[in-house]
Amino acid sequence: MYDIPLFDLNYGTEEEEAVVETIRSNWISTGPKCEEFEKNFAEAIGAKYALSMSNCTDALHLACYCAGIKNNDEVICPSLTFAATVNAIRYMGAIPVFCDIVSIKDLTIDPKKIERLISPKTKAIIVMDYAGFPCQMDEIMLIAKKHSLMVIEDACHGPMSEYKGKCLGGIGDIGCFSFFSNKNISTGEGGMLTTNNDDIYNRGKLLRSHGMTTMSFQRATGHATDYDICEIGYNFRMDDIRASLGIVQLKKLRNDLIKRQDVRRWYINGLMNIDEVIIPFVNHTGFVSNYIMPLILKDSTKEKRDYVRNYLHENGIQTSIHYPAIHKFSAYQEFSRNLPITEYVVDNEITVPMYSSLSKANVDYICIKLYEAIRQFDTKN
Ligand SMILES: Cc1ncc(COP(=O)(O)O)c(C=O)c1O
Description:
Layout lengths: L12 H13 L6 H14 L3 E5 L2 H11 L7 E5 L4 H9 L3 E5 L11 H7 L4 E7 L8 H10 L3 E5 L7 E2 L2 E2 L6 E5 L12 E5 L2 H11 L7 H5 L19 H32 L5 E2 L14 E5 L4 H13 L25 H9 E4 L7 H21 L1
Parallel strand pairs: 2-3, 2-4, 4-5, 5-8
Antiparallel strand pairs: 1-9, 6-7, 8-9, 10-11, 11-12
Helix pairs in contact: 1-9, 2-9, 3-4, 3-7, 9-12, 10-12
Pyridoxal-5'-phosphate binds next to α3 and α4.
């Protein structure tokens, strides 16, 4: 265990009580708690609909299905993301067309480069709001409109992050969220699909549960006695135990994010004068989730980045890399292309600890150790 982990759960007795209450209700699968969580989540992000899901990977899979992505269609997506964003495209037999990011200061997909990658086979764009900072959604939505493309937002990092007064996940055709333990809302496993489109919601709801026209809870409560299967679907459902955790976590979210803003400010103050460190999105002023705290080493190498990470590790500080590039993985070799900015970032990025209970003393210590590591490496080389 690290003295300062990368992430810490924001859990208390409220979560314990919520789970006990659900267990005692005698209904633990998809039911009223999922419905309540969906209603609250849709309201919180200003989307018309929210569908609770088993996880975000399944939400992305279902989103691709509902977006009508088929075999051999092309889908433009970032390579600087978690594998699930792109795996979902492959589940449909479609082709990921990797697009570079804006710059080492803005790690989101570049709309100008998106436009150059559009072909007659392009069906959709999947964007990912890195660390909760929004992609350039106005430009992306304009391109999508011009070329009749669907837009799926992988908003895993950004529950309640705002873009020009709107929350992420409610801007494109479909939004996908994750509630994996280390996310801003933690339910262990879990996810949410959001949309403002009636057809996508209705089809998504059916396909989430085998294509069945009624749910077990409706039958258990006497509101239905049988069902039809109108399309071959999946079991992508969340259960009421996780939903009850999600309801509590969602209530705590805004305060958690406000505290994270302080943590980010402490980091910026501590690192501002270290020339070798770039803080992506440093001048961003909108309200964001600050899911993670990424840093990029300037004029650096993978060797230097790994040295710095190891130094922090030896000093009890956990770090990570967000992310290894998808187009470099063996399973994605055939779709690889030249993405120079993404490639610089994957070799020179360090994610340092970020969570709402991180103290200023912890942040100061991390900044000092980071500075020491850079100096030590530079002296030796
Ligand atoms: C950007 C991104 N997309 C998708 C996922 C997949 O989410 P889940 O673990 O809920 O399937 C994650 C989770 O780490 C993620 O960070």
